[in-house]
Amino acid sequence: MKATASAFLAFSLVAGPATAQVPTLSAPSADLHQPVVRQYTLEDLSNIEAIKRLKARYFRMLDTKQWEEWGKIFAPDAIMRVTSDNSITGWSRGNNQPQEVVGRQNIVARVSQTHAHTLTVHHGHMPEIELTSPTTARGVWAMEDMSDTDSQKSHGWGHYEETYELVGGRWYIKTLRLTRLRLEETRTTPPKH
């Protein structure tokens, strides 16, 4: 009987670090017909789970407007790039060109300002996380979000493409790029002239 990766992961979370290897699993690959095959250790799976929890905190802290805690998710020199034509959040001026914010403090200032009076709901789905070294990783997350102000609502779908770094035993988002596949916006009140 073959053990599953989730059983090994559950064991590693209960029993602590282990050196045994889990069965061969496929790592993310752009070509679905040619998966990258590697042996994941329990430590690898524990790190992947830590990155998933990091992203879960990203969404929860963002939507609950806990800006100080949200900032702790990013590396001090993090870079956020957003390609979006979302007039509610002010990330675009109608040209759909990527906008970039550099540094944890600047990211928090920009996002907290643009979301101050906006009700938001963010969801991340189907993470593809690849460990690129003992202290770095990259990931792609399918995403869906909704924003609501007094005058406008939006509903969007797209992807987060991120890199992560492990510092002092803790994972941080190093780079984040948000691209949208679709965005629906509706006005709930006439625009002010």
Structure description:
This protein has a six-stranded mixed sheet. A two-stranded antiparallel sheet has the order 1-2. It has a single domain (42-187), classed as Nuclear Transport Factor 2, Chain: A (Roll). Helix 1 (5-15) packs across helix 2. Mean pLDDT is 82; it is low at 1-16 and 18-26. It has helices spanning 5-15, 42-63, 67-71, 104-114, and strands spanning 25-27, 36-38, 74-83, 99-102, 119-133, 136-148, 152-167, 170-187. A hairpin with a 2-residue loop joins strand 5 and strand 6. It is globular and about 55 Å long. The protein has four helices and eight strands; from the N terminus they run αββααββαββββ. With 193 residues, it is an alpha+beta fold.
Largest sheet, order of strands side by side? 4-3-8-7-6-5
Distance between the termini: 69 Å
CATH class: Alpha Beta
The low-confidence parts are: 1-16, 18-26
Task: Give a nutshell description of this structure.
With 193 residues, the protein is α+β, with helices and mostly antiparallel strands. Helix content is 25%, strand content 42%.
Distinctive features:
193 residues, alpha+beta, Nuclear Transport Factor 2, Chain: A, 6-stranded mixed beta sheet, two-stranded antiparallel ribbon, 4 helices, disordered N terminus
Task: Record the SSE blueprint.
Blueprint: H1 5-15, E1 25-27, E2 36-38, H2 42-63, H3 67-71, E3 74-83, E4 99-102, H4 104-114, E5 119-133, E6 136-148, E7 152-167, E8 170-187
